[in-house]
Amino acid sequence: xxxxxxxxxxxxxxxxxxxxxxxxxxxxxxxxxxxxxxxxxxxxxxxxxxxxxxxxxxxxxxxxxxxxxxxxxxxxxxxxxxxxxxxxxxxxxxxxxxxxxxxxxxxxxxxxxxxxxxxxxxxxxxxxxxxxxxxxxxxxxxxxxxxxxxxxxxxxxxxxxxxxxxxxxxxxxxxx
Length: 176
Hints:
This protein has helices spanning 12-26, 62-71, 88-96, 100-103, 125-138, 156-173; strands spanning 2-4, 33-34, 74-82, 85-86, 110-116, 141-148. By secondary structure, the chain is an alpha/beta fold. The protein has a single domain (2-41, 56-173), classed as Flavodoxin domain (Rossmann fold, 3-Layer(aba) Sandwich).
């Protein structure tokens, strides 16, 4: 599963997700791409209801992501970098995984992330801390990350090439 936190289908984050999808399909794997921006996903309210093991009580589209997250072999989180962290769309999804804490690991075997930033030297560390914390909580092995900087001056073809190489390397590392 690829969680694509793009704001539109014309930007670099969308290009990254599309290329990752094509890379997995070319290797014969099924892949689902979800676009939280087009889904009804509420913010975590911190109500604590998930602490008793019941799961999240909010009835929205996040249930589709939970189901795929738990049954996928690999989950790739893909986001633009906003203020040194994941986009608000991605952060909303990640915050809703608070339900993993009381249950322990219930996630995919592997996780990875792809990030992009328009600046020549975007700060990726904040997003990395968030993604790796989710992987640890889910009990997933971390496969790595793709960090693409300078998207303000790159072409989509350059982005595609970097994504192809990344998908190839994590597919091999996961023996997918």
